[in-house]
Amino acid sequence: MKRKGLNMEQKRNLTGWAFLLPAALLIFVFCFYPMVQALILSFQKGTGSAVQPAGFANYARILKDATFQQCLFNTIFYFVIQVPIMLILALILAQLLNSPDIKGKGIYRTMIFLPCATSLVSYSMIFKSLFANDGLVNRVLSTVGIPTVDWFQNAWAARWVIVIALVWRWTGYNMVFYLAGLQNIDYSIYEAARIDGASPLQQFVHLTIPLLKPTILLTAIMSTSGTLQLFDESVNLTAGGPGKATMTLTHYIYNISFVETPKFNYAAALSVFILVVVAVLSAIQMKVGDKRD
Amino acid sequence: MTKGKKILAHAVLILASFLSVFPLYYMLCGATNTSIDVVRGKLIPGTYLVENFKSLVANQNLGLAMANSFRNAILMTLITLLVCSIAGYGFEIYHDKAKDALMSVLLLAMMLPFVAIMIPLFKMMSHWGLVNSWAAFVLPSISTPFMIMLFRQASRSFPNDIIEAARLDGLSEIGIFFRMFVPIMRSTYGAAMTVTFMNAWNSYLWPKIVFQSNASITMPMLVANLKSGYSVDYGMLMLGVLICTLPTAIIFLCLQKSFANGITGAVK
Amino acid sequence: MKKKNAAALMAAAMAASLLVGCGGAASSEATSAAESKPAESTAESTAADTTADGDETLTVWAWDPNFNIYALKQAEAIYQKDHPNFKLNIEENVYSDIETKLITAATSEDYSTLPDLFLMQDYSYHKMVANFPGIYTDLTDSGLDWDKFSGGKLADSTVDGHHYGLPFDNGASVMAVRSDMIEKAGLTVDDFKDLTWSEFEEKAQKVVDANGVPMLTSSGGSELIIEMMQSAGASPVVDGEVKIADNAALKESLTVYKDMVDKGILAEYTDWDQYIASMNDGKAAGVINGCWIMSSVQAAADQSGKWAIVNMPKLDGIDGATNYANCGGASWAVSSNCKNTELAFDFLKSTFGSSVELYDDLLPNAGAISSYLPAAESDVYNQPSEFYGGQTVYKDIVNFAGQVPAFDCGAYYSDVRSALTDAVTNIVQNNADIDSEMQNAQDTVEFNIAG
Predict the structure, then answer these.
(1) Higher pLDDT, C3 or B232
(2) C330 with C122: CB under 8 angstroms?
(3) DSSP symbol at A49
(4) Which single residue of A17, A113, C277, C370 could bond C375 by disulfide (Cβ 3.0 to 4.6 Å)?
(5) Interface contact flag, B228 C3, Cβ < 8 Å
(6) What pLDDT does B75 receive?
């Protein structure tokens, strides 16, 4: 590369920019521009012709908002508990499906992927009926001799239902990315490791995870974003309840914009706040995970 | 792999598959039973499929919703794959500090709750006179940081030797992308296609907002309609849901081979 | 204008750059873009046609094919008798989406996506009119005969003396009970009429003991609590001021509710589908809700003859307590985007505003109980219902509806409901103190209003 003329280098650099320009432009126009609008909105009061400057009043409100704090807590809980469980499960399944001497891989793959293709309506209906007071889960629990749980009436139980539902729905989805990633790894590396006497666990930790690092970063970022955007499960599965015990941030922002007395300026302030927090989070993820080594 | 391990692996996979498929079975039972049987949790397939289908067709414009959903999802997938894969390739193959920084900035767009930008976005579309048009629906969703990132990460494993060799052969940069990268990266394209298709197929809120007319009804909207009445026909609903799920499942079934037998054979 | 052009140019340039960059695939995109054009232009042309003379098409949003959409189709047929060119273009939308679309349009001040007419839930009128007045056409001087609707129902869609909605369906609360289960306890359906909650609890306990199922099923949340409050006319918001913490009727409602849960008289299902299933499955001997719940009760055809409708119990020791409340119900609104308001007014006047013929059809075929008072005098309302053991349920419901006390949530119904749901949950699930939960709800609603 260094030997090449500066001219050539510049030309390629420009080609790179040309390649990514349409995509970047679209994101700037249809995402960042509205975001700036939201930022402006967050420093105002009222809508339409009755707009007034509000300084930091909307941000000050965040600190006093108990519902927001509850939703923030819920979202962090989902993030900390659900994301690792799901990604590890997905990795294990992908690893199993990648080994050459397992038969019927295509069928397994399709079946495990199916949950995320399932429409939200049916998925929330079945989870609600499975975890109902006299649903299948409680019936199984009582047969085994474990006390039954009021899944949707108890705050912690309801949060776990959401976690279980999310893991169920998205594990296969993440597995697909790992599978695609694993295809880029030559299987002979594993053969060599096995001859060297590496256990399956060692292979997993020392081969699969490092080699899949770009994909893992990708799914981690996707899950971070997914958790922040979490809306459907909160709305359809638990309606945020009991009380506000399972409500997510996005659900709350939707509510204060479209369900309760509308407070768009405050909703905008909340969004900006979330964005700032997440910007820091993903900066860390990128720093840790995006090294070209 | 020893026999014991193999059995264990199969056991894990069978368990995972069973748990995954159960809801589909539930849908299937629902679609073939009467509403009251669904409510009562009957888990045996029934004989009411034809009646449910008849009432579904009488109740909703199934053909139109299917056609719209397919048109939207297919076009969106094609455009998205093209725009994002070339961008991801551009970000990685020609990477420098500025491009890496830009990528990090773009990722922020993923973290923004859509409901927060929905109103400004609608204002923008309204200002441009695009409300009620296909452009308003499609423009905000074509380019997603996630897809760019997916192709950027995939490009990392694209061997540099191939690029150098192609350049020596006198292939243009864009030629390398289309003639070398695209065919070799079949597995990534397969995964990306499945995901984009699924997202486009299931998108609900934004199309609902920008389209006024029933003429643009999609399958998720149809399913939502089935559930919006004061008394719900659950048999019909389950059939609607089943029909809405099938295309994504079938697409996956067709595409999964491509990311199972992908790059390994092709490269070396 | 200039800005608009520049933006359009930019969009065009971007589209072009997409097309140029991509060789083979470009052609398919180009044709598809062209294909999508006709659909748009037809949409535009229908919108344009409405404004032109001679065209008599109105676009309407509603949400239930078996209920309000059916009603629209019947109304269209009736109006077409005198206006052969008239046409309704009915767009089915989930109700929450209707509100989302209205709000998005209003905040963008682009009303062009709105239909001519739409149906809106009564509880939303005050909130929507107060925050987004630009959506509506004032119906006060539209020539509709407001005297033919009950004052209580009209109040929901009347803001500052201006009418914004023409009442459609009735949401009078009913208590649907299983007559067979009541008889098994040695009681009769008549024993459950005109009760206070303490009398009710006593009798309900016998039914619970005899049948081994709760007397009532509840969908959780605060729906029933709000109905109980309303039955005593105890508004949670009076003249814009929140009256939750010191609301005696609310306190009594919460106390009774909690007591019933503890005694197994009332079972909570937080999920709607499970709630419906509990009625259809015989997992409860009754339910209290707006009369529209009857269509779900009737879904279990094999329980025909085993149900009866009575009024709900009233609160003990509360001034103004009655056996009547209301839950749900909707009214027709005319949007500000309606170009042909003459036609819209005349259509509403000739159908939902005056046609007994229409309401006579809607009762048996859609189960829609009218809030148009003269309709209730029609013969159809005197017909016995087989499902309810030959009871003249519709007459009874109309009778209930006439006695519902006035009740006001101001523009804050959703805020109140959400805050009370939290309170109920904490009281029932965590044995939280009723007074402090009421104070919390008061604080939450005040915090929301102060936004």
Answers:
(1) B232
(2) yes
(3) G
(4) C370
(5) no
(6) 92
- Judge whether C414 and A260 are in contact, CB under 8 Å: yes
CATH number at residue B133: 1.10.3720.10
Task: Indicate whether C41 pLDDT > 50.
Answer: no
- Whether residue A22 contacts residue C21, with contact meaning beta carbons closer than 8 Å, is answered with yes
Q: Is the pLDDT of residue B263 over 50?
A: no
A17 and C CB contact within 8 Å? no
In a domain, B78, yes or no: yes
What are residue A90's DSSP bridge partners? none
Write out the H or E segment, with its range, that includes residue C217: strand C216-218
Task: Convert the pLDDT of each residue in B73-89 to its tens digit.
Answer: 999 999 999 999 999 99
pLDDT at B41: 73
- Average pLDDT of chain C, as a whole number: 85
Measured CA to CA, the distance from residue A87 to residue C283 in angstroms comes to 41
Phi and psi of C158, rounded to 5°? -110, 125
Record: contact C422-A244, CB cut-off 8 A: yes
Using the predicted structure, report yes or no on whether residue C37 has a pLDDT greater than 50. no
Would you state the pLDDT for residue B1? 61
Amino acid (1-letter code) at residue C415: D
If one looks up domain C173-325+389-449 in CATH, what number appears? Answer: 3.40.190.10
Mean pLDDT of A235-254: 87
Query: What is the C-alpha separation between C42 and A5, in angstroms, rounded?
Result: 57
Asked whether residue C31 carries a pLDDT value surpassing 60, the answer given is no
pLDDT band at C6 (very low <50, low <70, confident <90, very high): very low
Q: Which residues of B touch A126 (CB under 8 A)?
A: 22-23, 26-27
Contact criterion met (CB < 8 Å) for A12 and B108: no
> How far is the C-alpha of A125 from the C-alpha of B219, rounded, in Å?
18
Contact between residue B109 and residue B145 where contact means Cβ atoms under 8 Å apart? yes
What's residue C23's pLDDT?
33
- Chains B–C, number of C-beta pairs less than 8 Å apart: 134
Chain A nearest-CA distance from C400, in A, is 30
Which among C282, C273, C299, A236 has a CA at the least distance from the CA of B35?
C299
What CA–CA distance (Å, rounded) separates C9 from A36? 22
Among chain B residues, CA nearest to A116 = B198
User: Does some domain include residue B103?
Assistant: yes
Q: Which residues of B touch C94 (CB under 8 A)?
A: 224-225, 227-228
Q: Is C328 touching A (CB cutoff 8 A)?
A: no
The answer to whether C127 contacts chain A (CB < 8 Å) is yes
- In chain A, which residues have their Cβ closer than 8 Å to the Cβ of B244? 119
Structural domains of chain B, count: 1
| Structural domain that includes position B147 | 61-267
For residue C446, give the chain A residue with the closest CA: A261
Amino acid at A43: F
Q: Which CATH architecture has domain C54-170+329-377?
A: 3-Layer(aba) Sandwich (3.40)
Please, are residues B224 and C97 in contact by the beta-carbon 8 Å criterion?
yes
Residue of A nearest to B21 (CA): A111
SS3 label, residue B80: helix
Q: How does DSSP classify residue C404?
A: P
Q: How confident is residue A292, by pLDDT bands cut at 50, 70 and 90?
A: low
Whether B159 is covered by a domain: the verdict is yes
> CATH 3.40.190.10 occupies which residues in chain C?
54-170+329-377, 173-325+389-449
In this predicted structure, the answer to whether residue A202 has a pLDDT above a threshold of 50 is: yes
Structure tokens given for C203: 């009798």
pLDDT value at residue A206 = 85
- Residue B34, min C-alpha distance to chain A (Å): 16
Q: What is the pLDDT of residue C304?
A: 92
pLDDT at A293: 53
Among residues B200, B90, B205, B68, the alpha carbon closest in space to that of B141 is found at: B200
**Domains by residue range for chain A, with CATH:** 68-289 (1.10.3720.10)
